[in-house]
Amino acid sequence: NSLRQFNPKLIGQANGIGQWTNEPIAHLDMGVPGEKAKDIPDQARALVKRIKEDYASQIDINKDWKLVTIFIGANDMCAYCNYPDEYSPDNFYQHMHDGITYLKENLPRTVVQIVSIIDIGLLRVAQCSYKAHMNSKDIGDCRRCNFTHSIECDCIVNYSFTDQQYRDLATGFQQASRKLEQSGDFDTSDDFTLVVQPFFED
User: Fold this and answer.
1) pTM
2) Strands 66-70 and 110-115
3) From CA 157, how far away is CA 149, in angstroms rounded?
């Protein structure tokens, strides 16, 4: 963790690959592969519970500053073409708002950062079968790649959902994150705030 270069006393980062329930590995990492924005409120509750119950001797919840990073939304985008109402940017906003509100009410002295979602439609560009210049010798690799995408993110291989629709969708999710940041709902005290990190935009 790069932050530990500046303060080796920082705690909470995962020390390997494993389920969030495996505390000796996950520590305060509540991330779960495959989860969507609707799961953020539950992850927020699980984080607060673990800090209070398992880290009470290491973290003074009222005095120690905490950094919470949220990177989610790709699975929402992967489900959108099949369930557009359930996984819309508006619902993304509401689920995130609910989860971050819980953190605000239960984790004083906290900075929450949302890492803005990447445009997963770029996976289409990487798909060989989508390229007109595909070389026949690459067909085997391409089929394996496409098969994996069809399982992990079938909207990527659903070409009735256009490239432009995917770009617009990614923009919608990015704007939802910005709307959370600019809402003012998380800037009402001097011990909690929300920022968006636009690493994967543009």
Assistant:
1) 0.85
2) parallel
3) 7
